[in-house]
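Section 5.1 Outputs to date
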Amino acid sequence: MKNIFIAGVARSGKSTLANYFKKKGEYNYIPLDYFVSSLKRNFPELGIKSSVVIDKNSSNKLGIFLSRVIDIMNFSEEKYIIDSAHILPRDIIKYLNKDKWDIYYLGYPNIDPREKFNIIRKYDTEKDWSYSRTDEELLDICKKLVLMSKEIEEECNNLDIKFIDTSYGLNIEKN
């Protein structure tokens, strides 16, 4: 049983996949978003941004931040799942030993942004970041997330990292 790193764009199914793996094994689940929000709020001088679309500068800094934590996890008897919407494949691959970590990136590169917008609105709850966004803001974000998904898919292909296309849902049993 390996540690698991799950990352990708917002609303791509990362938490769903993390909870699936958590139920199948004895994993400690660490959603990195909590730490990102804390770093952004408490240490603004670090320049960490926790926007919905992955910030490339923050991604690099968060990869470095996680590197020491990952070193410790590599020698632990416990197993971990890390879930992140803030780190690009190129910024984490250098710190994850594939003998000890399974790496999954999720995104939706093959859906029209308007269609993704409609899906998000259909399932929106008050707890979701998207709930308080205007339709215009959310559609603009969806356009950026589809483009980011395409970039991530290409990086994953170049780095031999598993990319799961969730354009039309996350079929966990298939993946």
